[in-house]
Amino acid sequence: MTHIEPISPLSGLDPRDRGGPLQPLLSIQGLKKYFHSAGSTWFGSQSVVRAVDDISFDIHKGETLGVVGESGCGKSTTARLLMHLIKPDQGEIIFDGEKVGIDIPLTEFRRQVQMVFQDSYASLNPRLTIEDSISFGPRIHGVHESKARFIAHDLLARVGLDPSRFAGRYPHELSGGQRQRINIARALALNPRLLILDEAVSALDKSVEAQVLNLLQDLKEDFGLTYMFISHDLNVVRYMVDRVMVMYLGSIAEIGDGETVFSTPAHPYTKALLASMPSMDPDQPTREAPLSGDPPNPINPPSGCRFHPRCIVAEAACSQKRPALETTRHKKSMAACLLQNRDTSIPFPSIKVSGQ
Amino acid sequence: MTPSQALETQPVIARSPGYWHGVIKRFSRNHVAMGALIVILGLILMAVFAAYIAPADPIKGSMLRRLKPIGTPGFPLGADELGRDMLSRLIYGARLSLLMGLSPVPIAFMIGSLLGITAGYVGGLTNSLIMRTIDVFYAFPSVLLAVALSGALGAGLTNALISITLVFIPPITRVAESVTTQVRGLDYIDAARASGAHSFTIIRVHILGNVLGPIFVYATGLVSVSMILASGLSFLGLGVRPPDPEWGLMLNTLRTAIYTQPLVAALPGAMIFLTSIAFNILADGLRGAMDVKS
Fold first, then answer.
1. For residue B136, what are the β-bridge partners?
2. Alpha-carbon gap, residue A351 to A264, rounded angstroms
3. Is this complex scored with an ipTM above 0.85?
4. Are B150 and B229 in contact (CB under 8 A)?
5. pTM of this prediction?
6. Angle between helix B208-235 and helix B157-184 axes, rounded to 10 deg
7. Residue A266: helix, strand or coil by DSSP?
């Protein structure tokens, strides 16, 4: 690996680019992962958790794709499936036109796609110094030790930490924000093209979170990165993303241009999710929670549309037929709802988005 | 911060001080653990130079001098039930006792760690296979198992050592497996896998450093158990044979004198106690020193 050169968005494309800007960087087709619950294999029927149930989406070059949804909707499982940390049951992952594992070897794929985890402490080996943690990736890809250390120091500076002060330290000596910067540096050490940020800023306090988000924006430009940004914080997602994907119970409810989805959501679930955001205006507080209860058990998901038991506009047909993703009226997004193109105004509580 | 200003010259970056450097520094600051280390080194020296230190022959006895109390002229620590000098026997006893206490543990540590780390890292069927086999050994009390193995292998020092080693493998494997399973689930292992590292590299860099400490500390605690087990085997005629001096065996043969000369009879026990507590404190000190947070 050569020394990491900043790639300006204007200076042309990444030399590793194959299909040009229009070919998706990552294309997911029919991805499925069912977890078989342990313990019930010997006696009785085995229960199956449909963590990710047949999802397809693209991540375009240079964009930030946000992934939102309640806990347990399959966001993190999707991320881990993309990284091949867990094996998909079914489905294809195509990276810049090449099938992962067939056209492009897994090792090479992993060099180009890296991940930042939520728990900044658990994702750093407590026994390694910061520079050892960061230089581990380059080292295993055959970079000479002193060169790898140079990369580590360079990246430390890039993520805003003074290498002379931090290189020899251990993770427990640092704050959460500093550790997450280190995790970002570690992910960048392999010079990836796609960075999966799995709740990467969720555990940080608000002021540090803002700093890290700005850092991520800067790094994206400097390195010509593409982000998959997983979060449950809708404000943060709205600030960060170009496109957004809303997941519900292992499937995609709505996907499309971020601004379109946030301002004119087509799926009742998206609307409910947006309406659940606390209001930033004290004169117009959010009075009622539009979504009640927990998501249904993914072991026995509801028939038809997964959302229909909690949906206040659901009709009889919703429990029969599982809706496919269809282009919405606004053309810039797709939603999986049978009723989306009805002209009935859906009687949801007023949807307020802070900062608007 | 602008990216272009980041380190234009290729500097020679010195490696930060290593991990073991820190361990030694932290350990030397712990005075109690340093004391335990000195005691252990003293015991080892005593065993090595027994022939030069011991005032008398540890084997030669006399019926006239049986069970002399501590402080008898010529017998600073008294004499045992066959009139042999206790001080000399205790000094010579360090040889066999330390051998029997120390040698099974490192071997069991290596085999147990290998099995446990493999089971914990690979998981699934391999884990079940290894751990269920280990559970079979767990069904027997350790003394009984040691006696049975030693009896099956035949009497003798080597066979006694082998049987004690075999007895220690299951508990060490257990500890190794549980610690490894715990570490295996942490995000930094996933991060290492995501960077494309092979299992062997991940185990070497990320697993070993984080699991060997706890396993090692547990194994160090087994040193004292090993000495007691060895003495039990010797008592049954499966390990050290009389008249060879060994603390466990001496404790057993002197038990008949517990009412006539309680202090003399307790001396071998005191040596075992001293050795085992020194090893326990050492283990504790090492655990503290190996923890980068202290």
1. none
2. 10
3. no
4. no
5. 0.80
6. 150
7. coil
